[in-house]
Amino acid sequence: MHEPTQEKEEMEHLQAYNRKLLANILPAHVADYFMSGEKGDVSIHSASICKQSSCCIMFASIPNFSDFYVELEGNNEGVECLRLLNEIIADFDELLSEERFKYVEKIKSTGSTYMAASGLTEATCDLKTFRHVTAMADYALRLKEQLAYVNEHSFNNFKIRVGLNIGPVVAGVIGSRKPQYDIWGNAVNVASRMDSTGVLDKIQVTEEVYRILHARGYPLTCRGKIEVKGKGEMVTYFLNDRSTELLEVVAENVSEDAS
Length: 259
Hints:
Elements: H1 2-25, H2 28-35, E1 49-61, H3 65-68, H4 79-95, E2 104-110, E3 113-118, H5 131-154, E4 161-174, E5 180-184, H6 186-196, E6 203-205, H7 207-214, E7 220-228, E8 232-239, H8 242-258
Parallel strand pairs: 4-6
Antiparallel strand pairs: 1-3, 1-4, 2-3, 4-5, 6-8, 7-8
Helix pairs in contact: 1-2, 4-5
């Protein structure tokens, strides 16, 4: 009786380990689908490819990391540079374990660019109060804080550049033996453009994101019209730190008192 019990425990441990591995590369709802044993041809199965109507997409890049990366004998031919980048990405991943960011899923990181989205499932897409959008805005602001912390402790001067957009996407898993979760659509392309046409240390958002955040008290500044590849001119906004807003209010009060 002892041997079957031990085999059962080992099988349960293996299943738990496999689930943990999948959770590291796939969103929870997709990992559950893979563990169900009913995946079939997952590359085209309807349960692995789906449409979502109102996702908030974020691209966050560190453009000046390329200036930091050099291959020298003293840094093990660039390995130490990549080790620091890995620590930064790992910090960004760790933030997602906070309860307030439960609506946000990491999609992937490519080089020094980090991609995430919120509202990918019915459970995380809030079309009444748009909590998935405010969660993404808070996450973007938190990334700026985290990178500032890294700079302080590594004596570097990395700058983050973030772009946000909202809209319909197609989300799903491509591949079965080596599955990769990704999202596609015009909304994704525009979010990427909000990053690439952005400004260092700024979070650039579209008018759609602006309307949602502004109605909920987030401080934003209109950048004006910019040229966006494939879209022509777009009016965009910068999402400001709440501390910046408080400083502006204090400055206004001081000015009024002086007059």
